[in-house]
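Comment on the following before class.
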Amino acid sequence: MVSFRFPFSFSQPPRPPVSATANAASRPFSTAAILSVAVAAAAGGAGIAISQDPNTPFLQSALNFLASNRSSFGPMWGSLSLSENSSPVTESRTGVSFPAVLGDTQRLLGVGLRRKAILGLKNIDVYAFGIYADDGDIKKCLSQKYEELSASEVKGNEALKEDLVESDVSMTIRLQIVYGRLSIRSVRSAFEDSVGSRLQKFSGSDNKELLQRFTSQFKDEYKLPRGSIIDLSREHGYVLRTTIDGKEVGSIQSKLLCRSILDLYIGDEPFDRKAKEDVELNLASLLGK
């Protein structure tokens, strides 16, 4: 699990009474004393008590305790996974919310809306979508190239999107259905058009067999009421795994297909340009110094 680590992120119990002598001795260490309370709180959580020597500064007692007991309990660093302390993000036009993290490691980079014109007269909101990428994979695959650049330089780099699409970074496009009368047949037809055009764009041929393998996963037996979730996940090795409401409906190993799917959302002509810009901005903040 990818974790961000923060020192001493523990709740602190009330400080015990300290004698005048000990208080005077520890006065120069006002900042350190706060740290020591956190150490005491952490040890208390492990069922261990720190005794206070009235002739020794409180900080020194705590440090002596840590040195002699560091093997008797876990590391004194609070481990905070991505999924903890992360609030959902709402797509403003639809009110649909997306978890900030999927599967503990995939970070939400942007949210958007897929709209579709009916008979050229009216646009309907079909689904809201969230774009996720694995935090560790981003750093592993992209940080070496961009770590010396500032965030603004990373965002302005034309190669950033191409590097993300080409690299073996685990990603998920989560679709949450908004249009209440959407049929699985309509979804299948829409992907035939949009994914089919991208397959043609990147390979120079229609790739009918590959397209049919993908669209055939959306069988008529599946229902898509408002709120249904479709996950299109690129896994390591360029495997595209499709799930509907948590149920896997198929997987296909194809770098071309993965690229074609991602291009719909972060390519040159994305469904929602603002979502693509958010992805670039958040990537830049992760990679830039």
